[in-house]
# Entry
Amino acid sequence: MKSLLISILLTITISLNAQNELNCLSSGCHDSYMKAENIHLAIEDGCDSCHDQNFENHPKRVGNEFELTSDLNTLCFDCHDEPDEKLMQHEAFAGGDCVTCHSPHSSDNISLLKSEDVGELCADCHDIDNEENMIKHGPVVAGQCNACHEPHQSAFANLLKEESPQLCFNCHTDNKKMLNLPTVHAAYEGSCLDCHAPHNSKYKFLVKDEIPNLCYDCHDDMGSEIDTAMVVHKIINQDKSCISCHLPHASETSTLLVKEGKELCFTCHNKEYKSEDRTLKNIYKIVTKSKVQHEAVESGECIDCHFSHASNNYYLLNAKFPFGSYSGGADPDNFSLCFECHDSDALRLEKTTTATNFRDGDENLHYLHISKNKGRNCTLCHSVHGSNQPHIIAKTVPFGKWQMPLKYKEIENGGSCAPGCHALYKYDREKDN
Ligand code: HEC
Ligand code: HEC
Ligand code: HEC
Ligand code: HEC
Ligand code: HEC
Ligand code: HEC
Ligand code: HEC
Ligand code: HEC
Ligand code: HEC
Ligand code: HEC
Ligand code: HEC
Ligand code: HEC
Ligand code: HEC
# Structure
């Protein structure tokens, strides 16, 4: 259709053109139009397809010697398609504001654009730059607004060429491949624009808000859970926050995790964390260097006992467990963490010959130690993650600031200890009480 129009225009206007060119172009006055790289084909049709001469004595200036053949706002539609009513219109296009962006005559840029940097044209009417937003999107910096927007009309809101995510995949092809990974974030299958700003942002990687707030936008229940919890995993309010453990888009692992199982936790807990009021142990060292590991740690996962985000128990534990040296008594409910896996009779029964091996004859020494005084905590005798002694017996017990050696020994049918200043204690399961 276009080429037909062109050839018709070319044939019927050859003679007229010769005259026009002599007057307007070859006279040395307006020949600069012909020196540009791209010349509007309408010029072949003659200057008078757009300009009417209303005074004879051009080029002697006596005022406005030419007027446009149509109103400036409708002139271009004389030959170009009218806006398509089915599409959303750019006011600048539908209103016939063509010459803010296009030269009517010729230009060195494609599509007769007045600037190679399309962004400069748009900046006449739109100010999308925000000086506070230091992170800018590549194509915006390059002035390629038209990589994402139709300048005239579009089937999509905001004059977009396509909707997100397809719009984004056009350039970010690796991101499209992520859709094939085993775990894909439901948000990622939605719209990239839920998390990213298209033009610029205050935050790295063009995210719309700081993490974790970005995540709480949708995971609002988690936000309130974390706000009200007794213990929050400190990392959530530090550094990379949520994305120190989760990938935002998709992953090879379950739950979008950066690494799975213990490996995730060991990326950080392979060192001590010292702060003013406490030192958190290097769990990686305890677990890998101990001769005896708690089987729950060895063949299980850290999250069998710990929550990863927040908890109403000390040390992020996922069930009740006493803090410090004392427990408040031999009530299994105080230790529900341990008795999720172990039989609580080991603590409940005062006398037993089966429920625990920590007994002297039928005297349950678990019960004895834990019911006495304020009640001992399990951690006085057991190193929960691992130790160098059988039954994960601790090497020392804290006595104030002093780490008192426990000197536990396993003996036939029992064991012995010699904590600090005390004499040697022994228990013997075969003993007759
Ligand atoms: C497709 C329509 C069209 C054709 C063909 C056309 N012009 Fe124009 N011309 C315009 C429009 C529209 C303007 C006003 C531009 C504006 O207001 O920014 C204009 C403006 C001008 C001006 C004023 C200065 C300027 O550049 O804005 C001159 C001079 C001019 N034209 C000369 C010519 C000559 C000579 C020809 C033939 C070689 C020609 N025009 C062909 C549409 C056309
Ligand atoms: C007399 C008819 C006519 C008028 C009036 C006219 N054009 Fe054109 N225009 C053409 C023809 C013919 C072509 C070449 C075929 C095509 O691309 O559609 C063209 C092509 C174009 C192109 C594409 C150039 C390229 O290199 O891709 C642009 C942009 C353009 N016109 C803008 C305008 C603007 C802006 C106006 C109004 C100021 C206008 N046209 C008025 C006939 C016209
Ligand atoms: C806001 C700036 C802007 C306005 C206003 C505008 N255009 Fe365009 N136009 C462009 C850009 C940018 C391109 C190049 C598109 C691309 O390649 O992505 C273009 C391309 C074109 C083309 C060639 C490609 C095509 O779509 O056929 C024509 C013809 C054209 N415009 C005509 C017009 C006419 C006629 C008007 C007024 C009714 C107009 N334009 C108004 C920016 C504009
Ligand atoms: C001559 C002035 C003018 C120019 C130049 C211009 N625009 Fe617009 N644009 C408008 C007006 C007017 C509106 C409608 C009012 C508004 O939403 O701000 C608009 C609206 C828009 C919208 C929102 C559309 C919607 O659906 O809400 C987008 C996106 C847009 N323009 C992109 C561009 C791009 C990209 C460029 C450069 C290629 C550009 N504009 C150049 C005047 C202009
Ligand atoms: C990478 C794609 C992309 C590029 C490049 C881009 N935009 Fe946008 N733009 C968008 C998207 C997506 C939206 C819709 C945002 C939304 O839905 O929140 C938008 C919205 C807009 C809007 C309307 C809403 C607003 O923010 O005011 C305007 C105007 C606009 N863009 C202008 C521009 C201009 C001007 C440029 C070039 C300097 C540009 N855009 C470059 C993707 C882009
Ligand atoms: C026209 C191509 C193009 C389109 C379309 C596009 N981008 Fe980009 N994007 C780029 C380029 C180029 C960069 C800069 C890459 C760099 O600096 O390494 C970039 C960078 C980014 C970055 C920051 C990456 C970094 O390393 O800082 C994010 C996030 C991003 N784009 C998201 C999007 C989203 C979301 C969309 C869809 C709304 C989108 N992009 C559409 C070309 C594009
Ligand atoms: C749930 C929020 C969220 C969604 C949805 C999302 N992103 Fe991201 N994206 C992020 C975060 C957070 C980062 C920064 C990651 C980092 O710092 O390691 C990022 C980083 C990026 C980067 C730069 C780093 C990289 O991985 O290459 C690109 C490009 C990107 N996103 C593109 C996209 C595209 C395209 C989509 C839509 C298909 C999308 N994003 C959807 C949150 C999101
Ligand atoms: C636009 C909404 C939205 C945003 C923003 C968002 N998410 Fe999600 N996310 C969802 C939806 C929907 C699901 C699936 C339902 C559910 O588990 O709640 C989900 C699920 C998840 C899952 C579980 C995935 C699985 O397969 O088990 C994780 C982990 C997650 N999001 C982390 C994040 C992180 C980290 C951020 C911030 C970088 C974030 N989300 C931001 C909507 C969002
Ligand atoms: C220390 C690592 C770590 C951090 C930091 C972290 N998560 Fe998780 N997250 C996990 C692990 C591990 C799981 C799997 C837990 C499970 O299966 O019980 C998980 C599960 C999830 C789930 C799915 C199950 C559920 O609990 O709903 C969502 C959603 C989630 N995380 C979002 C977030 C958000 C949002 C943030 C930031 C506020 C965040 N995570 C911070 C490690 C972490
Ligand atoms: C990205 C680093 C990082 C990862 C991964 C990580 N943590 Fe942490 N964790 C920390 C930081 C930082 C603290 C706070 C240290 C401090 O108090 O100075 C902490 C504290 C803890 C605490 C003590 C909580 C308290 O305040 O009482 C426990 C328990 C814990 N983490 C368990 C885990 C578990 C289980 C995992 C794996 C699911 C894990 N962590 C993964 C960084 C991390
Ligand atoms: C069988 C349950 C259980 C498992 C499995 C477990 N923990 Fe613990 N963890 C505890 C208990 C109970 C405490 C609190 C008592 C203590 O400090 O020994 C604790 C305390 C901690 C502390 C604070 C230590 C300190 O300095 O006192 C960190 C950090 C920790 N665990 C990380 C981990 C990591 C990492 C893993 C996985 C390798 C893991 N835990 C597996 C039960 C468990
Ligand atoms: C997720 C399950 C699980 C939890 C929770 C758990 N354990 Fe264990 N624990 C085991 C398994 C499995 C074994 C190895 C089999 C056995 O001896 O019962 C074990 C073994 C032990 C042993 C060594 C037994 C021996 O004779 O070698 C001690 C001591 C122990 N656990 C103490 C605790 C304490 C204290 C708690 C609470 C802080 C606890 N466990 C929480 C699963 C768990
Ligand atoms: C006073 C030190 C001491 C305290 C306190 C203590 N234990 Fe023990 N526990 C032992 C000794 C010693 C053994 C090894 C018995 C044997 O096999 O000779 C043992 C064995 C165990 C076993 C292996 C099964 C069994 O009963 O023989 C489990 C499980 C266990 N303890 C859990 C706990 C839990 C849970 C707590 C806290 C409620 C706790 N222990 C408190 C010293 C203690």
